[in-house]
């Protein structure tokens, strides 16, 4: 039929950072159905089933979740566990009943922190979880595992999970009280550039972190859609390299054009040791390479200026 979409995608979390980046990078022949929370509460299984059956998609991408930083997770472990579990169960079971393929997004916090670096997919469930976001991680891990059990039940590998590392980018959260490292660094450096003064880095800046530009993560997710049948049941999405916290701040300074001084607040915790996921599967399946760090930060800063600093 002329003009018909080649692929109809039911996207959960379409208003979130990942969801918006997926919509901005979608292949031209993809028709995306992305109900809002108001239209479909994903913690309500019958509502999810009705919406999915009505949409009759070729594929589900489950990119909704209750997501937060350490403080938010520690303050409400039960809420993070229950909401993420309910959403995951509802979405995967609905896709299973409808016989539709489903790409589920997990998170690299499902790895035991003591696993060898880089984290390979076979290290899942080989140790205890990071206590600060255990509820969230337990929910994500259970949903990944549910995918396996449903595949076993149907005899078809219709549910696959991607395990992204930390993300940053367009549609990120720049709120100074809750922002993650990269948007927080961009905002702090931007404000020092505008008003003067030093930029304070928590800890000594030497801890290493892995962050992937969300636009690149979205392009990778679309690549995963195209290679769905070749994907393993669980596959990491990573940047392939990590940087020190100071290097993220230095990149922010280059992007903003600020030449001031960093101060280090040694009273603040340095946080966990390294956490870097293996990108072996990405290489094997020819996934697109992520852009260099400064380029991702420059695009994120441009978004910040457009939306938040007008
Ligand atoms: N951001 C990261 O660094 C990162 C890293 C690894 C993995 N991930 C995973 O990627 C996924 C998306 O993350 P994100 O950063 O895009 O999060 P986000 O910006 O907080 O977006 C979350 C999305 O989920 C929706 N949602 C939450 N509860 C819902 C409910 N009960 N019913 C319907 N929709 C609901 C939100 O809708 P509203 O807009 O209405 O709230 C929003 O669209 C999550 O599964 C997360 O675990 C994220």
Task: Please provide a written account of the structure.
The chain is an alpha/beta fold and 310 residues long. It has two domains: 7-169 and 211-241 and 275-291, Rossmann fold; 181-207 and 243-273 and 301-307, UDP-galactose 4-epimerase, domain 1 (Alpha-Beta Complex). The chain is 41% helix and 15% strand. The protein has helices at residues 17-24, 45-55, 70-75, 77-98, 134-154, 181-195, 214-226, 245-256, 280-284, 293-307, and strands spanning 7-12, 30-33, 59-62, 101-105, 159-164, 166-168, 199-202, 208-209, 211-213, 234-237, 243-244, 262-265. The strands form four sheets. It has a six-stranded parallel sheet with strand order 2-1-3-4-5-10, with helices on both faces. A two-stranded parallel sheet has the order 6-9. The chain has a two-stranded parallel sheet with strand order 7-12. Helix 1 (17-24) links the parallel strand 1 and strand 2. It is globular and about 60 Å long. The model has no long low-confidence stretch (mean pLDDT 95). The structure holds NADP nicotinamide-adenine-dinucleotide phosphate (NAP).
Quick structural summary:
Helix content is 41%, strand content 15%.
Based on the structure given, which CATH architecture of the largest domain is correct?
A: 3-Layer(aba) Sandwich
Low-confidence stretches: none
Give, in order, the helices and strands: EHEHEHHEHEEHEEEHEEHEHH
C-alpha end-to-end distance: 45 Å
What would CATH call the homologous superfamily of the largest domain? NAD(P)-binding Rossmann-like Domain
Key phrases:
binds NADP nicotinamide-adenine-dinucleotide phosphate; 10 helices; globular; 310 residues; UDP-galactose 4-epimerase, domain 1; single chain; alpha/beta; Rossmann fold
């Amino acid at each position: 039929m002329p003009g018909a979409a080649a692929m109809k995608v039911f996207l959960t979390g379409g208003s979130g950072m990942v969801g918006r980046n997926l919509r901005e990078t979608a292949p031209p022949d993809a028709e995306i159905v992305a109900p809002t929370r108001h239209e479909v509460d994903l913690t309500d299984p019958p509502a999810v089933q009705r919406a999915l059956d009505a949409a009759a998609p070729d594929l589900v991408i489950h990119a909704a979740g209750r997501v937060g930083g350490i403080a938010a997770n520690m303050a409400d472990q039960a809420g993070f566990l229950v909401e993420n579990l309910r959403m995951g169960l509802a979405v995967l079971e609905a896709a299973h009943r409808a016989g539709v393929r489903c790409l589920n997004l997990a998170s690299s916090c499902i790895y035991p922190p003591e696993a060898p670096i880089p984290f390979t997919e076979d290290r899942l469930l080989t140790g205890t979880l990071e206590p600060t976001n255990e509820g969230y991680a337990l929910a994500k891990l259970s949903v990944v595992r549910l995918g396996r059990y449903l595949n076993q039940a149907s005899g078809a590998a219709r549910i696959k999970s991607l395990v992204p590392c930390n993300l940053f980018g367009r549609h990120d959260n720049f709120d100074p009280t809750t922002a993650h490292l990269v948007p927080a660094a961009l905002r702090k450096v931007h404000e020092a550039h505008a008003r003067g003064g030093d930029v304070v880095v928590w800890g000594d800046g030497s801890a290493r972190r892995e962050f992937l530009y969300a636009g690149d993560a979205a392009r990778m997710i679309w690549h995963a859609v195209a290679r769905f049948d070749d994907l393993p049941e669980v596959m990491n999405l990573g940047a392939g390299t990590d940087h020190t916290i100071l290097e993220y701040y230095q990149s922010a300074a280059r992007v903003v054009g600020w030449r001031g001084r960093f101060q280090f607040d040694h009273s603040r915790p340095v946080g966990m040791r390294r956490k870097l996921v293996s990108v072996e599967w990405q290489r094997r399946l020819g996934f697109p390479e992520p852009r260099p760090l400064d380029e991702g930060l420059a695009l994120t800063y441009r978004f910040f200026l457009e939306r938040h600093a007008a």
